[in-house]
Specification:
By secondary structure, the chain is an alpha+beta fold. Helices cover 26% and strands 41% of the residues. The protein has a single domain, classed as Alpha-Beta Plaits. The protein contains two helices and five strands; from the N terminus they run E-H-E-E-H-E-E.
């Protein structure tokens, strides 16, 4: 099973800026189309490794990049599920 996190955004600009920020910090992440199972204002989401959550969250907060939600994805074969993560 592959696990990952996914930030969804309120705008395409925020999604693209977050990708640029993480690339500059040499954190492996990629923009993907927001899965149909997730309702979001933006059609792009940022997917990244589960162990990078704290660092990614800190970088986005420091740059005041607004997110619409955080989801944990679990992929087994061709089946992927998403669960919204509550952030304090």
């Amino acid at each position: 099973m592959k696990q990952f996190y996914l930030f969804v955004f309120t705008s395409t600009h925020a999604a693209m800026e977050s990708e640029r920020l993480l690339q500059a910090a040499q954190i492996q992440a990629r923009l993907i189309p927001t899965p149909e199972k997730i309702i979001a204002d933006c059609g792009l989401s940022l997917q990244f490794h589960i162990q990078a959550l704290e660092t990614v969250s800190q970088l986005l907060n420091q740059q005041q990049i607004t997110t619409q939600g955080l989801y944990q994805g679990k992929q087994t074969g061709l089946h992927t599920t998403f669960e919204k993560v509550l952030v304090d």
